[in-house]
Design brief:
Helix 11 runs antiparallel to helix 12. This protein has 17 helices and 14 strands. The protein folds into two domains: about 325 residues, Alkaline Phosphatase, subunit A (3-Layer(aba) Sandwich); about 90 residues. Strand 5, helix 9 and strand 6 form a beta-alpha-beta unit. The strands form three sheets. The protein has a ten-stranded mixed β-sheet, with helices on both faces. It has a two-stranded antiparallel sheet with strand order 9-12. About 50% of the residues are buried. It is α/β, with parallel strands linked by helices.
């Protein structure tokens, strides 16, 4: 048992109380042109939601949402923050206070808690039924979209069952028999030769298995637009060494973005019996693991553009559509304000960063292998890619101490492999510091995450509750029989839906 003094308890409770007050205050949500005239919560006695969107910003806490908003063009705002229903979700796993994406994704997909690393199975490795499986039993079409690998932990929790998220080849194989109508975004890391070699059993090439299973594989926007509604599809474009899409700020012209995958998914999934689609902004989390504020903000904005696609559909079908936006956990312990800056904060300085930290590290790796770049040349690159050292803004001028620090890190980073690249993180840290943001971690945290909702039975998602309750309320909104809430009496469930 952990004993806390009254002072410690009050200190721990204050942030939670402030966050709860933020979300429970009436009138907090402003109207957003992206929504139109929507702002009322449909009656809880209405029929079940027939078209359901679940948006998961992986690693996206309140600070990440606000940072994404702060970097938008002047006068613009995020669509998700103007949805009329708001809530807070706690994210603990069964066996750890700070969760991982597997346990968190399982809670959202099944309404049950589990241990870290486990994909839609219970702590005793019993198979847990997912909302995707329930939707399919009810005759609905289903879709899973993500900016990371399609067999990464969060998307996997909606179509696969595995005692370990590391069994990535077997997880990818489960796509074939999942019944999911639309897979889109990232590639399958489990199909990489190294992952197949590490698997307990090599099931073969995932692309070939998917095609044999009736899926059409498309690799660009024109091919995707040519697919007819009702055709099972796996859509992916260019992907990186981890099978993920590029960070939004690194994407090149012509590459399919999360919003396009979402919009095309709506076209392919729409039908009289309805659909369920999960869309994950997975690269938000990856940016936060690297403490890359600029990349995180750009991916939040990209994620929000996908939300706007769902809102456009909602405006046409307001009585039967439910949109819920949340996160599986926070990552990085992001703060909007830091010790060195005090009350001074200029988050838009992050707009001087032209590439993600990951891409800049790839550049530094090339410098190391070629051994042609000197420190003065590296400083010139900092001005080009981060704005640091620019004479145009005094906030970007490097101090003598910072130059010394960077020269030491540059020298160390030019040493032969496996010496780590400490130069790139040092550069990013300086820009973050100047912008007035701070990071407390390079891993996940236990900070509660926001919920934004609109549409049929959106009122179920107000208040503060655990992620398992979130998962069960999503099932309740869909009217799936067998979905029970561990806190009865807090809301009236939608009528149960019977499978055809």
């Amino acid at each position: 048992m952990i004993h806390r003094s009254a002072t410690m308890q009050r200190t721990w409770m204050l942030p939670a109380l402030l966050l709860s007050a933020l979300f429970l205050m009436p009138g907090c949500s402003a109207r957003n042109p992206a929504i139109g005239a929507a702002g009322e919560v449909p009656s809880r006695t209405a029929p079940p939601a027939r078209n359901i969107f679940l948006f998961i910003g992986d690693g996206m806490g309140l600070a990440q949402v606000e940072l994404g908003r702060a970097l938008l063009p002047e006068g613009d705002t995020l669509a998700m923050t103007s949805l009329p229903v708001t809530g807070l979700v706690s994210t603990h796993a069964l066996d750890r206070y700070i969760t991982d994406s597997a346990a968190a994704g399982t809670a959202l997909a099944t309404g049950h808690g589990t241990t870290v690393g486990t994909i839609s199975m219970g702590s005793r490795l019993d198979t847990l039924k997912t909302i995707v499986e329930m939707a399919e039993s009810a005759g609905m079409r289903t879709g899973i979209v993500t900016s990371v690998g399609i067999d990464n932990a969060t998307p996997a929790c909606f179509y696969a069952h595995s005692p370990s998220r590391k069994r990535i080849h077997d997880i990818a194989r489960q796509m074939v028999g999942s019944g999911v109508d639309y897979f889109a975004g990232g590639y399958a890391e489990g199909n990489f030769p190294l992952m197949r070699a590490r698997a307990d059993l090599d099931h073969g090439d995932i692309d070939s298995l998917m095609q044999a299973g009736g899926y059409r594989i498309v690799r660009n926007a024109p091919e995707l637009r040519a697919v007819q509604s009702g055709t099972p599809v796996w859509a992916y474009g260019r992907y990186d060494r981890n099978a993920a899409m590029k960070f939004a700020m690194d994407a090149e012209s012509g590459e399919i973005d999360l919003a396009t995958y979402t919009g095309e998914g709506i076209r392919l999934l729409e039908n009289p019996k309805g659909f369920f689609m999960m869309v994950e902004g997975g690269k938000i989390d990856w940016a936060c693991h690297g403490n890359d504020g600029a990349a995180a903000a750009h991916d939040v904005a990209s994620f929000d553009r996908a939300v706007r696609e769902a809102l456009a559909f909602y405006r046409r079908h307001p009585s039967t559509t439910l949109i819920v936006v949340t996160a599986d956990h926070e990552c990085g312990g992001l703060s909007l304000g830091n010790a060195s800056g005090g009350y001074e904060s200029r988050p838009r300085l992050l707009l001087n960063q032209r590439v993600s930290l990951e891409r800049f590290m790839d550049r530094v790796a090339t410098w190391r292998s070629e051994q042609r770049v000197t420190f003065p040349m590296a400083l010139d690159s900092l001005e080009v890619f981060f704005g640091l050292g620019s004479p145009c803004d005094s906030a970007l001028v490097l101090s003598a101490g910072e130059r010394r620090e960077l020269q030491l890190e540059f020298t160390a980073s030019m040493a032969p492999f496996p010496a780590p690249d400490t130069f790139s993180p040092a550069v990013s840290a300086i820009l973050n510091r100047r912008a007035g943001i701070g990071w407390g971690s390079r891993v996940h945290t236990a900070v509660p995450v926001p919920v934004f909702a609109i549409g049929a039975h959106a009122g179920l998602f107000s208040g503060s509750y655990p992620n398992t309750v979130f998962g069960r309320r999503l099932m309740q909104a869909a009217g799936f029989s067998g979905a029970t809430d561990p806190h009865p009496g807090e809301f009236s469930p939608a009528p149960a839906r019977s499978a055809p």
